[in-house]
């Protein structure tokens, strides 16, 4: 684990981190930037390849205590220099360049002994905080993956990564065009359900124990009409209160919970509880 001290904002690796945070994932040489010690530890636990770790001087000992791979490069610098690169307003002076997982359709649709496919399809979702929260809910309720259609915010946006609380490192995630996604889902026998604020089957009456894909649309406009017409059905969340619709991430969480509930009932009872809210 080589450690280098740097003193300049013009360092080439710092510039690479800045690009990875501004143009994450598929750009910036395929690398993504993560910020903060908690996300760095989550990335390590998930087995991601950590190319470079950046640390402010006061956290040098913490970085040395973390079990980083031998090949990981560590750069130590004044905290102010690192803070000038990071996206958070009050950043903890730790960041890293990581290689995002290389997921395929087989990861989302492959045979699983414990559950059939449960996929979230994001169509034009724009808020990175919503996307990250959906990834966290997807992992919490046993979804087999998430598909991002064109127009959806980049899942490796720093705000999305933070909101996912590390789930982005573990939940299979694909970017796909509409035609590719529809073809792959249909060929795999996955029933596609669009979501709408009203005028559809209540989600608790829909069969979500079978292979299913739940389409979540843009925060303001919902699922695009041309995509919704290609779905196999539509579901809604009945709301007795005086609201027209739910936040996209909240709606996704409710439906994923319902799908997990139905699957647990079908399998003979609830799974062991391993966590909760925090």
Summary, kept brief:
With 278 residues, the protein is an alpha/beta fold. It has helices at residues 12-22, 37-45, 60-65, 79-83, 105-109, 128-140, 158-164, 178-187, 225-228, 248-266, and strands at residues 3-5, 32-35, 50-56, 73-77, 94-98, 118-123, 145-148, 173-175, 191-195, 201-202, 212-217, 233-236. It contains 10 helices and 12 strands.
Describe the structure in your own words.
With 278 residues, this protein is of the alpha/beta class. The protein folds into 2 domains: 3-98, 2-Layer Sandwich (60s Ribosomal Protein L30, Chain: A), CATH 3.30.1330; 105-266, SPOUT methyltransferase, trefoil knot domain (Alpha/beta knot, 3-Layer(aba) Sandwich), CATH 3.40.1280. The protein has 10 helices and 12 strands. A 7-stranded parallel beta sheet has the order 8-7-6-11-9-12-10. Helix 6 runs parallel beside helix 7 and helix 6 packs parallel to helix 10 (248-266). The radius of gyration is 20 Å and the shape is elongated. The mean pLDDT is 90.
């Amino acid at each position: 684990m080589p450690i280098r001290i740097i003193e300049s904002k013009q360092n080439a690796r710092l510039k690479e981190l800045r690009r990875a945070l501004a143009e994450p994932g598929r750009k910036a040489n395929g690398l993504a930037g993560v910020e903060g010690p908690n996300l760095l530890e989550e990335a390590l636990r998930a087995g991601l390849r950590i190319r470079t770790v950046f640390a402010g001087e006061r956290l040098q000992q913490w970085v040395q205590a973390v079990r980083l791979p031998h090949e990981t490069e560590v750069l130590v610098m004044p905290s102010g220099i690192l803070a000038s690169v990071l996206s958070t307003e009050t950043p903890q002076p730790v960041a890293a360049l990581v290689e995002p997982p290389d997921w395929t359709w087989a990861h989302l649709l492959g045979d699983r002994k414990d559950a059939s496919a449960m996929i979230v399809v994001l169509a034009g979702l724009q808020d990175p905080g919503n996307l990250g929260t959906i990834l966290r809910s997807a992992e919490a309720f046993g979804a087999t993956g998430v598909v991002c259609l064109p127009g959806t915010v980049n899942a490796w946006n720093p705000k999305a990564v933070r909101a996912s609380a590390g789930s982005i490192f573990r939940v299979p995630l694909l970017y796909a065009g509409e035609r590719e996604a529809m073809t792959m889902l249909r060929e795999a026998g996955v029933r596609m359900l669009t979501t709408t604020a009203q005028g559809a089957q209540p989600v608790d009456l829909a069969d979500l124990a079978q292979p299913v894909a739940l389409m979540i649309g843009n925060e303001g406009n919902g699922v695009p009409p041309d995509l919704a017409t290609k779905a196999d059905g539509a579901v809604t969340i009945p709301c007795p209160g005086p609201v027209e619709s739910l936040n996209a991430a909240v709606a996704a969480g409710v439906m994923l919970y319902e799908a997990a509930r139905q699957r647990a009932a079908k399998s003979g009872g609830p799974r062991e509880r391993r966590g909760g809210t925090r």
